Amino acid sequence: MANDVATPLRMYGNWRSAAAFRVRIALNLKGLPVEETFIDLDAGDQHKPEFRKINPQGAVPALFDGGGPPLTQSLAILDYLEDAYPAVPLLPAEPRARARARSLAQVVACDTHPLYVPRVRNYLMEAYGLPKERMMEFVRHVFSTGLKTLETRLSTEAGTGRFCQGDAVSHADLCLVSLWVGTGIFGVETAPYPTVARIAEDCLALEAFARAHPLCQPGAPQG
Amino acid sequence: MANDVATPLRMYGNWRSAAAFRVRIALNLKGLPVEETFIDLDAGDQHKPEFRKINPQGAVPALFDGGGPPLTQSLAILDYLEDAYPAVPLLPAEPRARARARSLAQVVACDTHPLYVPRVRNYLMEAYGLPKERMMEFVRHVFSTGLKTLETRLSTEAGTGRFCQGDAVSHADLCLVSLWVGTGIFGVETAPYPTVARIAEDCLALEAFARAHPLCQPGAPQG
């Protein structure tokens, strides 16, 4: 990708990776240009030796900031960007508000998203001989469980504002949106989650989110 | 639990919760006494309305620090303790080292542990009619995948020292140990992971880890 300014940031990602999406939003919000190389997950490029050298886990995203080893795991990358590029903060300053933003982010990034990634879906189909449609019941169950927790918390906890934590975008919103866009892809019912929907749609109206959207990335299906 | 000093910290946990274990180690290392209430997960007490009011997700740990709402999600709690009680740091100061410690922690806390918790194990058995032994193949696959990533990274990356990140205990070690103690419970082969084993055993020799061990908590099986 051509950037008019020199950038030290390079990322290995994929159009449909929810984890790469989160990091892409943060980079946009912070005004940090990045050169993204798309790893073809369908072709299994994440398992090739040259990528395993970058991330032995065989997962995207992996971020390079100048020299030094790659940064991996999306939440760790988001925190690194807070430490290294604090001018546009994406976490509140107050410890309890920070903890709440992180906790909401982790409902998605720990307890929901890792359960429906391709490596789990493939395992269920291959090891247990489940047809795709039956495996998808698990995926939709996982989505619904995560969305229900988010809806209950966001609609009852005092910390919720325009965004998940107060009136400023935080890691919680990045994670929420990365889950939300998956509901369309996986056919998950969204009507029971109006507070999640309100925040997700408010976020996606922002240029930094819209430009990071999976369907706007190279390799995404057209139309 | 009797403490000689007044403590503002109260935690809802369970002897066998890997997430509560991580938080308990951090509290011990930081010298913070805590009153822990054990939620009977086998009896389903985490789903009772009175606990759902504390954590709508129905999961432990939940930490109270004086007044204010409960803190949830183990990694968010660990970060809160860094913010609120920084005297004994459990993350390195340098951003790249912090990012690596967090990334290793998240290999466990995002990509491994949430896949084998009771709510997933029960779903697989109930929705797909899998007998326990077949379901356990998934659990052992998840453990092995996580342990293999940790072993590869810890044995090849320059950041590894006496502990996961350099020579000081960090969140990475708390998470690594919380996974390691599960290998015995779930019958996971450990021989292929000598670097993980070395660090886990070094940690478990420390009083703060040993005292936090699941089998030393009320409700744990004897002997």
TrEMBL record, chains A, B:
GO MF annotations in UniProt: isomerase activity
Every GST C-terminal domain range: 94-222
PROSITE patterns xref list: GST_CTER, GST_NTER
Start and end residues of each GST N-terminal domain: 7-89
Record's keyword terms, sorted: Isomerase
Keyword Isomerase: yes
Superkingdom in the source lineage: Bacteria
UniProt cross-references to Pfam families, sorted A to Z: GST_N
InterPro entries found in the cross-reference section: Glutathione-S-Trfase_C-like, Glutathione-S-Trfase_C_sf, Glutathione_S-Trfase, Glutathione_S-Trfase_N, GST_Zeta, GST_Zeta_N, Thioredoxin-like_sf
Family from the record: Belongs to the GST superfamily. Zeta family.
The protein, known as: Maleylpyruvate isomerase
Record organism: Methylobacterium jeotgali
Gene coding for it: nagL
